[in-house]
Protein backbone atom coordinates (compact mmCIF):
# COMPACT_ATOMS: atom_id res chain seq x y z
CA UNK A 1 0.00 0.00 0.00
CA UNK A 2 0.97 3.64 -0.30
CA UNK A 3 3.32 4.84 2.40
CA UNK A 4 4.35 1.36 3.50
CA UNK A 5 8.02 0.94 4.31
CA UNK A 6 9.91 -1.97 2.74
CA UNK A 7 9.74 -4.09 5.91
CA UNK A 8 5.99 -3.61 6.32
CA UNK A 9 5.38 -4.38 2.63
CA UNK A 10 7.65 -7.44 2.70
CA UNK A 11 5.97 -8.79 5.83
CA UNK A 12 2.49 -8.21 4.34
CA UNK A 13 3.51 -10.10 1.20
CA UNK A 14 4.99 -12.91 3.32
CA UNK A 15 1.75 -13.19 5.30
CA UNK A 16 -0.31 -13.28 2.10
CA UNK A 17 1.79 -16.10 0.61
CA UNK A 18 1.70 -17.96 3.94
CA UNK A 19 -2.11 -17.72 4.05
CA UNK A 20 -2.49 -18.80 0.41
CA UNK A 21 -0.26 -21.85 0.95
CA UNK A 22 -2.05 -22.99 4.11
CA UNK A 23 0.65 -22.09 6.63
CA UNK A 24 -0.30 -22.90 10.21
CA UNK A 25 -0.99 -20.00 12.60
CA UNK A 26 2.00 -21.16 14.66
CA UNK A 27 4.28 -20.15 11.77
CA UNK A 28 3.02 -16.57 11.83
CA UNK A 29 3.45 -16.51 15.61
CA UNK A 30 7.08 -17.62 15.20
CA UNK A 31 7.69 -14.99 12.51
CA UNK A 32 6.11 -12.33 14.71
CA UNK A 33 8.31 -13.17 17.66
CA UNK A 34 11.59 -13.32 15.71
CA UNK A 35 14.13 -10.55 16.15
CA UNK A 36 17.23 -9.77 14.11
CA UNK A 37 19.31 -11.33 16.91
CA UNK A 38 17.78 -14.76 16.15
CA UNK A 39 19.30 -14.99 12.68
CA UNK A 40 17.63 -16.93 9.87
CA UNK A 41 14.77 -19.13 11.04
CA UNK A 42 13.17 -22.03 9.18
CA UNK A 43 9.98 -24.09 9.31
CA UNK A 44 8.34 -26.72 7.10
CA UNK A 45 4.65 -27.43 6.45
CA UNK A 46 2.84 -29.40 3.72
CA UNK A 47 6.04 -29.92 1.70
CA UNK A 48 6.93 -26.21 1.84
CA UNK A 49 10.05 -24.95 3.57
CA UNK A 50 9.94 -21.33 4.61
CA UNK A 51 12.79 -19.28 6.03
CA UNK A 52 12.85 -15.72 7.30
CA UNK A 53 15.15 -13.20 8.90
CA UNK A 54 15.41 -9.57 9.88
CA UNK A 55 18.53 -7.69 8.79
CA UNK A 56 20.53 -6.28 11.69
CA UNK A 57 21.58 -3.26 9.62
CA UNK A 58 19.65 -0.23 8.46
CA UNK A 59 15.89 -0.42 8.95
CA UNK A 60 15.84 -4.06 10.11
CA UNK A 61 14.58 -5.24 6.72
CA UNK A 62 12.43 -8.41 6.74
CA UNK A 63 13.20 -11.18 4.24
CA UNK A 64 11.21 -14.37 3.70
CA UNK A 65 11.65 -17.28 1.26
CA UNK A 66 9.18 -20.07 0.39
CA UNK A 67 10.49 -23.26 -1.26
CA UNK A 68 8.39 -26.20 -2.45
CA UNK A 69 9.75 -29.74 -2.35
CA UNK A 70 7.86 -30.57 -5.57
What's the layout of helices and strands?
Blueprint: H1 6-20, H2 25-32, E1 41-45, E2 48-54, E3 62-68
Please, could you describe this protein's structure?
Helices cover 33% and strands 27% of the residues. The chain is of the alpha+beta class and 70 residues long. Strand 2 and strand 3 (62-68) form a beta hairpin. It is globular, with a radius of gyration of 12 Å.
Largest sheet: 3 strands, antiparallel
Q: Order of strands in the sheet with the most strands?
A: 1-2-3
Strand coverage percent: 25-35%
Distance between the termini: 32 Å
Total helix count?
A: 2
Oligomer: single chain
Q: Mean pLDDT score, rounded?
A: 87
Rg, alpha carbons:
12 Å
Taken in chain order, the helices and strands follow as: HHEEE
What is the 3D shape? globular
- What is the helix fraction of residues, given as a range? 25-40%
Unreliable spans are none
The chain-level structural class is: alpha+beta
Record field, number of beta strands: 3
What would you say about this model in short?
This protein is 33% helix and 27% strand.
Spell out the key features of this protein:
single chain; 33% helix; 70 residues; 3-stranded antiparallel β-sheet; alpha+beta; 27% strand; 3 strands
